[in-house]
Amino acid sequence: MIARYKYRFYPTDQQKHSLAKLFGCARYVWNEALAYCHTAGKYLGYKHLASRLTKLKGSVQWLKEVSSVALQQSLRHLEKAYQGFFNKKGGAPRFKKKTTNQSATLMRSAFSLKGKGVYLAKIGVVKPIWSRELPSQPSSVTVIKDSAERYFLSFVVEVEPEKIEAKSPSIGVDLGIKIFAACSDGMKYYSPDYTPLYNRIAQLQKQLARRVKGSNRWERTRLRIAKLHCRIEDMRTDFLHKLSTKLTNKNQVVVLEGLNVRGMLKNRKWSKAISRQGWRFFRDLCKGKSEKFQRELRILNRWEATSQHCSKCGWHWGKLDLSTREVVCDNCGTQHCRDVNAAKCIEQVGMGYRPTLKRTRRLSKTTEPKGSVASVSEASRILAL
Ligand SMILES: [Zn+2]
């Protein structure tokens, strides 16, 4: 399977200059091709755009100053973006801006590993900080400059799946806002508190608005804001990586709830908190790691009402108010933590053994879709990613 390994590096001033050129050209090629497709009214295909690029180089001289591999790669990325759009996996490709993250990708022919350095075509040798060893020869490298002006090399490498026996057969995970993840084994994981950092950003945003756009002071404040955003991003990524590793490593099957994130984002009261959580990223991480550890990830149908049932007896108590944290089951008298109970239900539905669903359906008179109690109907409601 394929993985990305990312390392920070500090380019010299000369290299910064060459890198800026590389990013600029890669961006230019993307934007130019995109604009051309817009005028044509359709995506014209990689081959057509690549042969156009060759002609373009005749008139735009400075495109020759950077690695041609990176420019072709820009067109490949555009193709991927269009494919994603056609397959309804993403929005339409957009024009790239100078102020956001900059990147350019080099394939095998345009870079090589030289001792502790990495040679990049027409840039020179850069020395990344090798925080961990590369597991195999990389097939490509993406050079990144983020908005806080940090530089990274991101290698694509082939990795072998790890074979570690799972300690537990399955776990259900309920994702929330106050508690990031409540698990069916009773564990609760809280996400780091980003509020102080967000407050600081809000302050600086006000400051930025008072500055003259483009001035030195404006630029300094902009950079400080970007750095804070990066810090939050790093904290979040770190937390989500650790948690997803822990859950997938320990359990053979991880069951998550399919969340209607887009629908939830429409709720203005919650939208900010939700977008800060990184649920989707967490799901993607779990997916990648289940592959790595040879585990299985199951995603429930998003309409499965997992918080409405008792995980012990299957009693249906109906919709709970969001503020209700503890529930006592009217039927069996068990006291539940709301989130852990939901996690247990998620696990039960995901594994196909929700208790005595039939009886509760009759008692609670809810209108659930018809189907048999166990495996078949439950399994059919489990959506593959
Ligand atoms: Zn009960």
Describe, in plain words, how this protein is organized in 3D.
The chain has 385 residues and is an alpha+beta fold. 44% of the residues lie in helices and 19% in strands. The chain is built from eleven helices and 15 strands. The chain has helices spanning 13-40, 46-59, 68-86, 195-210, 216-250, 261-265, 268-277, 279-292, 338-351, 357-364, 375-380; strands at 2-9, 102-107, 111-114, 117-120, 124-126, 140-145, 151-158, 168-175, 181-183, 188-189, 251-257, 296-300, 326-328, 335-337, 382-383. The protein has a six-stranded mixed sheet with strand order 10-9-8-11-12-15. Strand 9 (181-183) and strand 10 (188-189) form a beta hairpin. It binds zinc ion. Zinc ion binds next to loops.
Concise structural overview:
The chain is an alpha+beta fold. The chain is built from eleven helices and 15 strands.
Write the layout of secondary structure elements.
Blueprint: E1 2-9, H1 13-40, H2 46-59, H3 68-86, E2 102-107, E3 111-114, E4 117-120, E5 124-126, E6 140-145, E7 151-158, E8 168-175, E9 181-183, E10 188-189, H4 195-210, H5 216-250, E11 251-257, H6 261-265, H7 268-277, H8 279-292, E12 296-300, E13 326-328, E14 335-337, H9 338-351, H10 357-364, H11 375-380, E15 382-383
Parallel strand pairs: 8-11, 11-12
Antiparallel strand pairs: 1-7, 2-6, 3-4, 4-5, 6-7, 8-9, 9-10, 12-15, 13-14
The protein binds zinc ion.
The site of zinc ion has 8 residues, from loops.
